[in-house]
What we know:
This protein is of the alpha/beta class. It has two domains: 3-119, Rossmann fold, CATH 3.40.50; 132-226, Winged helix-like DNA-binding domain superfamily/Winged helix DNA-binding domain (Arc Repressor Mutant, subunit A), CATH 1.10.10. The protein is 38% helix and 21% strand. The chain has eight helices and twelve strands. β7 (137-140) and β8 (145-148) form a beta hairpin. α1 (11-23) packs across α5. It is globular.
Amino acid sequence: MLKVLLIDDDIELVGMLGEYLEQEGFEVKAVHDGESGLLEALTGNYAIAVLDVMMPRLNGIETLRRIRMKSQMPIIMLTAKGDDTDRIVGLELGADDYVPKPCTPRELTARIRAILRRMQTSPAEDGVSEALEVGHLKMWPSQRRAEWDGKPLDLTSTEFNLLEILVRQAGNAVSKNILSEQGLGRPLARFERSIDVHVSSIRHKLGTFPEGSSCIQTVYRQGYQFIKE
Length: 229
């Protein structure tokens, strides 16, 4: 049974979300402030965390930052509807996705399942020893592991998903819609910038070509392309 950590000071909302998730087969632990959430998240006992931005003692953004210093566990942020600033900051700090509040238990559960589903690889598609290799990048999808020039890459779950999609299509442009549907498990909303923020983070973590250019290029009106050397 997969364990979900809910970090939110809205007792009523957490109760409703927790009850629904348990009915859907998850084990749920709820805490109601950032400091407690941070301690629980770093135990390593949870498959995923759902983290509210606005909380007492330690807000969600700072809690996320501190979790990411030590862990790459999947994290979904709960943000105020229409608050693009918190969403972008959260994604830049390593959140895997966000859900605007108020949200329905069904929507949140669907987002959780989408992230966890992408973390599970099929042996038929990805043998344990099979690796993807393009230039300085090497990825082992079945192990959720990647290296650049022989050095480990510290990628979030969503970053790994998106990079794998781009690498499998190396040399071809991949649209933002495809990246969102296959990498995040949901359609890309109009004017949404989440894919752009995730790709920007991946670029920073990857190396560059000798002349200094990025191996992930923006293709005007099409999407992104992983460049073959």
